[in-house]
Amino acid sequence: MNSWPPVPTEPPARHPDAPAPDTELPEHYAYCFGCGSEVEHGLHLRATAGDDLTVRSRFLVTETHQGAPGLAHGGLLACAFDEALGTAVGHLLRRPAVTGRLETDFVRPVPVGTVLHIDAHIDGVAGRKVYVSAEGRMNSVVGDIAVRARALFVLVELKHFIDHGRREDLRKVAEDPGLLGRSVDLNP
Ligand SMILES: CCCCCCCC(=O)SCCNC(=O)CCNC(=O)[C@H](O)C(C)(C)COP(=O)(O)OP(=O)(O)OC[C@H]1O[C@@H](n2cnc3c(N)ncnc32)[C@H](O)[C@@H]1OP(=O)(O)O
């Protein structure tokens, strides 16, 4: 395996206002496919702040997440890891960021009905680049590893979302700010 992080990094610092360990984290956007409560067949990931630079997420694989009969779709598993890794960056650093690169190793098939326990860890920061990794275990925090993932998130300004987001969705959020879970500082 290639070395990780792939470039020299600084040790990341947990933001002083990051949620305390064991805090249940709110969804970051009600219409997010990964965590949003308004997306009927979304992934509905739930996450808890861990110690230091970690976040622990749970994802129940349902029959709407199948790729082969009775088995989770790999792309949806990648989505769950994108969400879990992004949640760690958002809540622990409290800075807006987007996924620049995501790699996944699918180690075991994941049957419908499995709860994946995803432990994400911020590994290093280099300028705007944040390197994060995670392991997903089957049905328990000490279960067999089913998926491993590593990602680069890139810190962005809020302007990124305003410039690129669809107008009608931005308007909806402006009218009902409660749709955003406020994981990050909007005026850092
Ligand atoms: C709580 C929140 C949970 C959220 C979970 C879900 C997260 C998501 O799914 S986000 C949506 C998916 N991602 C996107 O839409 C991002 C689309 N891409 C972009 O907007 C841009 O390419 C973006 C912002 C990543 C980078 O663009 P830009 O701001 O111009 O910066 P740029 O200079 O190109 O890159 C910054 C650094 O990252 C590096 N980088 C960017 N992309 C990559 C990549 N794919 N691989 C390796 N390095 C990369 C660049 O080389 C550069 O490095 P350096 O600083 O050493 O020169």
The number of distinct helices, counting runs of at least 4 residues, comes to: 3
**Unreliable residue stretches:** none
CATH class: Alpha Beta
State the shape: globular
**Order of helical and strand elements:** EEEEEHEEEEHH
Total number of domains: 1
The assembly state of the depicted protein chains is single chain
Mean pLDDT: 95
Major β-sheet profile: 7 strands, antiparallel
Proportion of strand residues: 25-35%
Query: Termini distance?
Result: 36 Å
**What is the topology, as strand order, of the major beta sheet?**
1-2-3-7-8-9-6
Q: Tell me the number of strands.
A: 9
CATH superfamily: Hotdog Thioesterase
Helix content: 10-25%
Name the hetero compounds present. Answer: octanoyl-coenzyme A
Radius of gyration: 16 Å
Domain Thioesterase: 70-136
EC number: 3.1.2.2
Keywords: Apoptosis, Cell membrane, Cell projection, Cytoplasm, Fatty acid metabolism, Hydrolase, Lipid metabolism, Membrane, Transit peptide
Catalytic activity: (5Z,8Z,11Z,14Z)-eicosatetraenoyl-CoA + H2O = (5Z,8Z,11Z,14Z)-eicosatetraenoate + CoA + H(+); octanoyl-CoA + H2O = octanoate + CoA + H(+); hexadecanoyl-CoA + H2O = hexadecanoate + CoA + H(+); tetradecanoyl-CoA + H2O = tetradecanoate + CoA + H(+)
Please provide a written account of the structure.
This protein has three helices and nine strands; from the N terminus they run E-E-E-E-E-H-E-E-E-E-H-H. It is α+β, with helices and mostly antiparallel strands and 188 residues long. The strands form two sheets. The protein has a seven-stranded antiparallel β-sheet with strand order 1-2-3-7-8-9-6, covered by helices on one side. The chain is 19% helix and 32% strand. The mean pLDDT is 95. The N and C termini lie far apart (36 Å). The protein is globular. The protein has a single domain, classed as Hotdog Thioesterase (Thiol Ester Dehydrase, Chain A), CATH 3.10.129.10. A hairpin with a 2-residue loop joins strand 7 and strand 8. Octanoyl-coenzyme A binds next to helix 1, strand 6 and strand 9.
